[in-house]
Design brief:
Strand content of chain B: 15-25%
CATH architecture of chain A: 3-Layer(aba) Sandwich
Largest sheet of chain A: 7 strands, mixed
CATH class of chain A: Alpha Beta
Shape of chain B: globular
Distance between the termini of chain A: 32 Å
Strand order of the largest sheet of chain B: 3-2-4-5-7-6-12
Oligomer: heterodimer
Order of helices and strands of chain A: EHEEEHEHEHHEHHHH
Helix content of chain B: 25-40%
Largest interface: A-B, 68 and 77 residues
Bound molecules: iron/sulfur cluster
Shape of chain A: globular
CATH superfamily of the largest domain in chain B: Thiamin diphosphate (ThDP)-binding fold, Pyr/PP domains
Number of helices of chain A: 9
Helix content of chain A: 25-40%
Chain lengths: 205, 667
């Protein structure tokens, strides 16, 4: 059995849940495969922490798939258990650090969204350099972009940033599902034209 | 769900990614339900929402968003007695409200199958407590099923209707938020023929009438049925034993925690212990446990919350004279969500197996960092009328977000989107417990502490849920209190279900039977009732001030529709050709030169569209309205004491106007 775990974190309103749904739908074709993963929404409201997990499970054979010791999977990812982490907000990347191990790939958006505690002057928002250096203590595979700016520039809107991030994921990490599967899911969804462009854009960043 | 028609048309062999909640709904559909209802509540809302959305494609399906859980479960009982399989859903605390019908359901039994799906919320990310509703079954005798994953969520729900009919119990299907909001692969089954779903109520006085000795008789009957069910559960397909090892240690678990446990064994590389998976966590058959205990010296019960399984199993162990040791809550916390990490740590400690190095490292790293990171909490959406309401209240009582002083006005909180007002920066609630506790507790406080004014808050949906009798009680007993009803026309927090004061549908269609809230309140005997737009913050705030000076029960209705619904409707109208842009547009901006950073808009109002920007020239920061997120509600414009925010209007001829006057563009 092989597993591949992706943790996606960010804030309410950034399209985190959609990213998880796209990645799961793209993996629905093989029989010897299981897809799972739960989401956590800190209330439906804006600016709360949101995370979603995508877990791919590949069985070696039918026996393994029917083995009760092998075929039941948690909807969560354990500490140190993510093959990849995507974060759409820099500070939240550090909250997602618990999922990383030395081989994990990290992709994060460096546009900060200031939490209320910082707004009120009670705490300070960490510098990007601090975030990167903390991540580097765990893994070397770190990629970060100003995805908000890229999305605004190309699409005049922030709606595409989650799909751009998915494109980057495919460019930087060995993902056990195919790009074309993702593309065909995007092609069926809302805003297909822009989403396909955004995915392509991310692939080439 | 990717292809929404699959939810209705899918049949055996089809596969899709669905939410746990959708899987439960699909299971009920496969079982042939004709009735589905709920009072919306996270994490369970989508169970009925998906059925409601699709009912036009499904023959003979009635759905209802009831005004509260008590009504909703009674509705399901009425449908069941009419021979209709019925599904009722609610969140964990909903059962407190529905506990009365639940209690009587065992006495009367069901006719057609009845399933009560409960979304529990360990860790309380969307609730005001983390109660474990399984304990209710010790006196309601409702059997409890706990699916472990998406597939079981569907399969168990479907089977639950058969079990319900066979033993004449309403069945509780328990799903924590981790399962409700898990999205994963589901294999569909076939849907039962729906053409002959037709109600036919047959009188059954022996079961349905409960008084004096009749009630006592029914009490004895359900205890008997419970014993029969226990027998059935000795060898049913729902409880499973994994026994291919030689270890003298056994593990017992259920639901999502069982999924955590099995993944834990895989992560720790442990494959030889005996395992019992309980599909039914109530009742538990003594014989089943006895057989599982054979040859074991130690048994570990892995579960969330306060140990409902452990409580039952220890009792059984005592009765059957088990000589080994039983462990549970020594290794797994009684509070908070039990995560995969918690199960890994607990099992590794019990088995004295080392943790994987990467796990250990990551946990330490997280612990080291987490205290240093600024906390983040959710807040109102940009342009939300609740933000204006809280701003107005705080201004009216002479309080600021940044001042650390004792407030001599008591603000009673309640349940809904506006509950977020208790968080920073507003900190505008002094207590919060359950639905309609605000006015109930508030009126007593106002009675006993005459030195403080009391303001009680409530949302429209919460008011209709159970607030009307509370308001009547306040009037009848001469309370002195200001009651603010935040009427945003929708049950917004749970996905925008309609309330009795929803005036227009999302596509602009006016709705029937819209309640006149002001008239209703007057008819309850309140003479001081006013309805205002909270976004006119200055007017609203002075109205609150003067209301506080009046004696008796005063009601202010903060009436403005949820901004998300307003935006959605405008979008859909625009799509359908109505020219919403014709009326002209406006834009708000902060003039850097005039802004003195007094923080009125940035901290006191704290609209998230107002952000901090780096000034490339000076290196300092300035406040800036992000045009991509501002929804142009104009509240910041109204409150800026330094007239630093300006309104730029432009109409379709793109003629710019500043504060109503044509704009001179200097180059
Ligand atoms: S209220 Fe006006 S002066 Fe005060 S910070 Fe906001 S824009 Fe600046
Ligand atoms: S007008 Fe002001 S208060 Fe309203 S959304 Fe825009 S920035 Fe926020």
């Amino acid at each position: 059995m092989k597993k591949f775990n992706i943790a996606i974190v960010g804030l309410g309103g950034q399209g985190i849940i959609t990213m998880g749904t796209v990645m799961k739908n793209a993996a629905l074709n093989s029989d010897l495969q299981d897809v799972s993963g739960s989401e956590r929404r800190g209330g439906a409201q804006r600016e709360g922490y949101v995370e979603t997990f995508v877990k791919y499970i590949f069985y070696e054979n039918i026996e393994e798939m029917n083995n009760p010791r092998k075929n039941m999977h948690s909807p969560m990812i354990e500490s140190g258990g993510a093959n990849a982490l995507i974060s759409l907000e820099p500070l939240e990347t550090l909250r997602g650090i618990k999922y990383l191990n030395k081989d994990s790939i990290v992709i994060f958006n460096k546009t900060p969204y200031i939490p209320i505690s910082v707004r009120m002057g009670k705490t300070k928002y960490p510098e990007i350099s601090f975030i990167v250096s903390e991540l580097q203590k765990v893994t070397k595979h770190i990629y970060y972009y100003d995805i908000d700016a890229i999305s605004l520039e190309k699409f005049n809107s922030l709606t595409q940033k989650n799909i751009i991030a998915l494109g980057i994921l495919f460019a930087k990490a060995e993902i056990p599902i195919s790009r074309t599967a993702v593309e065909s899911i995007l092609a069926q969804g809302k805003g297909a034209e822009n989403n396909l462009k955004a995915f392509e854009l991310g692939l080439n960043l | 769900m990717a292809k929404s028609n699959l939810f209705v048309n899918g049949s055996e062999g089809d596969k899709a990614i669905v939410l746990g909640n959708e899987a439960i709904a699909r299971g009920a559909l496969e079982a042939g339900i004709g009735y589905a209802s709920m009072y919306p509540g996270t994490p369970a809302s989508e169970i009925i929402a998906v059925l409601d959305k699709n009912k036009k494609y499904v023959e003979n399906l009635y759905t209802e968003f009831s005004l509260n859980e008590h009504i909703s479960l009674h509705g399901a009982i009425g449908a069941s007695w009419s021979g209709i399989r019925s599904l009722c859903a609610m969140k964990n605390v909903g059962l407190n409200v529905a506990s009365e019908p639940a209690q009587f359901l065992a006495y009367t039994g069901v006719k057609a199958g009845l399933v009560l799906a409960i979304g529990s919320d360990p860790g309380a990310p969307s609730s005001s407590n983390e109660q474990d509703d399984r304990w209710y079954s010790l006196h309601t005798y409702m059997p409890v099923m706990e699916p472990s994953n998406i597939q079981e969520a569907k399969d168990f729900t479907k089977d639950a209707f058969d079990v319900s009919e066979e033993f004449s119990f309403g069945i509780v299907l328990m799903a924590p938020s981790r399962l409700c909001h898990n999205a994963g692969a589901l294999l569909f089954g076939n849907i039962r023929d729906r053409s002959n779903i037709k109600g036919n109520f047959k009188k059954d006085p022996e079961n349905y009438l409960n008084l004096f000795s009749l009630a006592v008789k029914n009490h004895a009957k359900y205890l008997e049925r419970n014993e029969l069910l226990k027998k059935y559960l000795i060898e049913s397909k729902f409880n499973k034993t994994v026994n291919d090892g030689s270890s003298k240690i056994g593990f017992i678990s259920s639901g999502v925690i069982y999924a955590h446990l099995m993944e834990t064994f895989d992560i720790l590389g442990v494959y030889d212990h005996k395992i019992l998976k309980l599909g039914f966590s109530f009742p538990i058959s003594d014989e089943l446990i006895k057989r599982f205990f054979e040859g074991l010296e130690k048994v570990v019960i892995v579960e969330e919350a306060e140990g409902f399984l452990e409580f039952q199993i220890k009792k059984i162990a005592y009765e059957i004279g088990f000589k080994g040791n039983i462990y549970g809550k020594e290794f797994f916390s009684r509070t908070g969500e039990l995560t995969l990490d918690d199960v890994i740590s607990g099992v590794s400690k019990f088995l004295e197996k080392p943790l994987p190095a990467s796990f250990d490292f990551a946990v330490k790293k997280d612990r080291e960092l987490s205290d240093k990171l600024p906390q983040r909490s959710g807040t109102f959406c940009i342009g939300c009328p609740h933000r204006s309401t809280f701003y107005s209240i705080l201004k009216a009582v002479g309080f600021s977000n940044t001042e650390e002083k004792e407030r001599d006005v008591v603000i009673a909180g309640d349940i809904g989107c506006y509950t977020l007002g208790l968080l920073p920066p507003y900190n505008a609630m002094d207590f919060l417990t359950c639905m309609n506790a605000g006015l109930s507790i508030g009126q007593a406080i106002s009675n006993f502490d005459k030195s403080k004014k009391v303001i009680a808050l409530v949302g429209d949906s919460t008011f209709y849920h159970s607030g009307i009798p509370v308001l009547l009680n306040a009037v009848q007993n001469g309370a002195d209190i200001l009651y603010i009803i935040l009427d945003n026309s929708w049950t917004a927090m749970t996905g925008h279900q309609k309330t009795p004061t929803t005036q227009k549908d999302i596509d602009g269609k006016p709705l029937q039977n819209v309640l006149n809230l002001k008239d209703l309140i007057k008819s309850l005997g309140v003479s001081y009732v006013k309805s205002l737009d909270p976004n006119s913050v200055k007017r609203f705030s002075s109205q609150i001030k003067s209301a506080l000076k009046e004696p008796g029960v005063k009601v202010l209705i903060a009436k403005r529709e949820c901004i998300l619904q307003e935006i959605r409707r405008n979008k859909s109208l625009l799509k359908n050709g109505a020219n919403a842009a014709e009326t002209g547009e406006s834009l708000y901006e902060i003039q850097k030169s005039r802004c003195v950073k007094c923080n009125e808009c940035f901290v006191e109002l704290a609209c998230p569209a107002i952000i901090l920007k780096k000034d490339e020239d000076t290196g300092g920061d300035y406040y800036y309205i992000d045009p991509a997120s501002c929804v142009k509600c104009g509240v910041c414009y109204e409150i800026c004491p330094n007239s630093a925010i300006r309104k730029v209007e432009f109409d379709i001829k793109s003629e710019f106007k500043l504060d109503g006057k044509p704009l001179e563009i200097t180059v």
